[in-house]
Give the backbone structure.
Amino acid sequence: MSPPRIGPGVLLASLLTACQATDRPALVAQVERKVEAQRRQLNRDLAGPKARLGGQVSALMGCSLERRQAYELDPEQEHTLGRAVAERQLATLGVEPLPPTDPVARYVDHVGQYLALVAEAVGNASAPDRTEGPERLLGNRPWPLEGYRFLVLPLGEPRASGGPGGTVMISTGFLLGLESEEELAAVLAHEVAHVQRGHGVEALKDFLCHQEARRQPLAAFGNGLTAQLFQRRDGAQRAQGQRVLAELSTGEAKEAANLYREELPWDFELEADRISVRLLLAAGYDARVLTGLLRRTAQEAPARHAWLRMHPPSSERLETVGQQLEGLGAAQAWPSSEAVAQRTRRFQDALAPLRVLSISQSAR
């Protein structure tokens, strides 16, 4: 359900009424949520149905599933392009990931790699949880060329993303806001689903498709340099993702990197939610934790929570996850409270160094 439209008069009245409240932080969060809801509604009005068609602006510019096939990436190309885009994203954020030897990074990687293996094992069973429409015809991506990478970014803003080539990022700010390994697994499973279903790849193919359309007359669409690079598969002339990025202007390359910092089409996000429920169940986690996590994060101000800005409204996600859980039936077996408690202790122990560092930095 779309958030209600907030007119200027209503918003002003809300502000005046709230000014009499004593809980000023809650007031600020409430106002930010209202503003964010209106921003989303305006974007929806401007975008129309395009956010639900699975390819950034496919409905407007004609980069359908069929047209995007000319830009299909093989594992080597996806790996190269994915790494290049990830590096640009890190440069834009101005951070370097924690080293693999860091205890927190190592723990996140262990949980993520386990979920990735589970996703590979049960991937074909996720077909009922895929979106309707043409994107449903997409197959799962092959296993990333050099495997999955789970990176922990030293950022206070809560954010998480999963991009081409198996690069999954999560910020320390997000980790500090989680309460258990079940919640960490829920976030990582959502991002692994994005990688496995090729959501980021489709967004990138769509971007390249549109860039080619801008450069050439419509009659010659799809026959230019970029398309040729992606259609060539012979030896030394085989397309390399880095070469394609090199063909883009600096501004265009930044736009490509921004695909993984902004919203993906909502169908992709909701599909990842549905599949993450299946992954959590197969991995032995309590998938019901998703509803609690979504409800809690919904109380945050979207302006300060990148994960909220990058996803559909929590109400729509809660409805999607709720339907998925309800469909499991009363006979569904859930992990024991002892098993969940044991994993929660492991989570708390693993994140203890990060919490100590956060406290010491706050005291300065």
